[in-house]
Amino acid sequence: MHSIRWPGIDRRSLFVGGASLAAAALFPRGSRGGTAAPVREFTLVAAPSRVSLVGPPHPDTAVWSYNANIPGSEIRVRQGERLRILVENQLSQATTVHWHGVRVPNAMDGVPFLTQKPIAPGETFTYEFDVPDAGTYWYHPHHHSAEQVGRGLAGALIVEESEPLVVNRDLVWVLRDWRLARDASIVNDFGDRMEVTMAGRIGNVVTINGHVPEKISVLAGERLRLRLINAAPARIFGLEFRDLRPLIVALDGQPVEPREPSDNRVVLGPAMRADVLLDMSGTPGATASVVDTFYRDFYKLVELEYGKEPLLRAQPLHAPSRIRSNTMPEPDIDNAEKHTAVLGGGMMSGRGMMMGMSGNGMGWSINNVAGTSHDMTPMITLSRGRSCVISIRNETAWFHPIHLHGHSFRVIARNGRPTRDREWLDTVLVPPRETADIAFVADNPGDWMFHCHILDHQDGGMTTVIRVA
Asked: Do 452 and 460 touch, CB atoms closer than 8 A?
């Protein structure tokens, strides 16, 4: 595991907690006629703003945000509804918005030069699509991704089930990190070539919902549904809930059989999500720590502090039932097309460790090709409705969270061994020198990005296109 060298800022700013997300107002517009889904309308304004990330005595931080909020305004709708979102760009550079994990039509996917023209400064673009699947998703730009996400552009998109789990509270934690100077300003060293070819831009300040409180209040006996979203440009989280027994009920928005995480640690690469049930089993006045232990320099993320109120219930709720599955078609593994995606490049990766650095300046590749936003020739072309298995082989010295747009996939094997749960994901974390086999039905037509979600790796060439025709 690679240790982190923290730039100079006092250590208090490493211990980051959360406040509630600011929610955008919903404006029901009725149906679109007949049995069409109800339409929910939102506006997202991407613009510079100032927010208090670290808190007093540090000054506010100049960020880029949606609707002047860090994270951006929470979008929360019901499964089956239709979204219409007006995006207004008040930034100094072009942008787009990608709806991560939602199986949108290709023209609504928010990938510049592939699915749409970038939204220029001063211009607007309206995204409109149905939300077929319940779950925890998020949104972020896909133009100059490392810098725009690194400066703050990201928000939660929550699609509620028609039959939600029985909990006392439904909480969203948007996790991310920042690289801040001592005056709490964002360090302007995006695209550092050494970092691009290593773990990416790891920050020195970790936040939950854009704030740094040391404690979050809970009630003894309550059950929480905690929706965890990793919106960091590069950081991987490995969260341990000390003195608690978390149950994972969904990954990347897709239901799983409720189960405790391996080694009592919830691991989330960039862009990955997990819905976790927490039964607050401590006594009034007690505390429970949430610790991030993924890297060698582990730290306390936040303290959960029990209030002085009496126990909410004498006996815990029954074990939760599985959330109803979403609508993904089941891949036909036996008759699927088979493909391989070899992840290459980066420092300390042996042969090809600096792939293309002397030519196009890229440090990463998929199948020996460094992808760019202006030249994205499809790696694979699939017939619509065809099942596909892709073996992702990581030949580098670094972790890679690999994301496929427009689809969810089953993880059917790791290192040649079948997985126990065959979980549905849209982003799979592939450790160094390991493989992950994914399977899906190519039922969503268009050209879809397939890339590493460590955004420096994506911008550095670890990106390609899968075409569904």
From this structure: no
Q: Quickly state the pLDDT bin for 35 (edges 50, 70, 90).
A: low
* CA atoms in the 13 A half-sphere facing the CB of 296: 6
pLDDT tops 50 at residue 379 = yes
Confidence grade of residue 6 (pLDDT, cut at 50, 70, 90) = very low
Average of per-residue pLDDT across 442-454: 98
The amino acid at 93:
Q
Q: Considering only CA atoms, which of 176, 110, 175 is closest in space to residue 144?
A: 110
- Max Cα–Cα distance, the chain, nearest Å: 67
The span from the CA of 191 to the CA of 438, in Å, is 30
The position carrying tokens 């789990």 is 165
Cα–Cα dist 457/50, whole Å: 28
Distance CA 389, CA 369 (A): 20
Task: Please name each of the domains of the chain with its CATH number.
Answer: 11-160 (2.60.40.420), 169-306 (2.60.40.420), 333-468 (2.60.40.420)
Asked if 122 and 110 count as a contact pair (C-beta separation under 8 A), the reply is no
Helix (H, G, I), strand (E, B) or coil at 404: strand
**What token pair was written down for 390?**
């892709």
Residue 261 has a CB neighbour count (10 Å cut-off) of: 18
Least confident of 41-50, 93-102, 302-311, 331-340: 302-311
Residues 382 and 318: their CA atoms lie apart, in Å, by: 45
Query: Angle at CA 150, nearest 5°, toward 89 and 24?
Result: 50
Confidence of residue 458 (pLDDT cuts 50, 70, 90): very high
287-338: pLDDT as tens digits: 999 999 999 989 999 999 999 998 888 777 888 889 999 989 999 999 999 9
Are 366 and 391 within 8 A, CB to CB? no
| CA gap 325, 322 in Å, rounded | 8
Pairwise CA distance, residues 94 & 436, whole Å: 35
Question: How large a percentage of the chain has pLDDT more than 90?
Answer: 83
Question: What are the backbone dihedrals phi and psi of residue 57, each rounded to the nearest 5 degrees, phi first?
Answer: -90, 10
Are 93 and 142 spatial neighbours (Cβ–Cβ below 8 Å)? no
Residue holding tokens 């929360």? 76
Token digits of residue 449:
């990005």
Counting Cβ atoms within 10 Å, is residue 385 exposed (0-12), middle (13-18) or buried (19+)? exposed
Give which of 457, 455, 464 is closest to 149, Cα–Cα. 455
Angle (CA) 112-407-101 rounded to 5° is 70
C-alpha 189/C-alpha 207 separation (Å) is 20
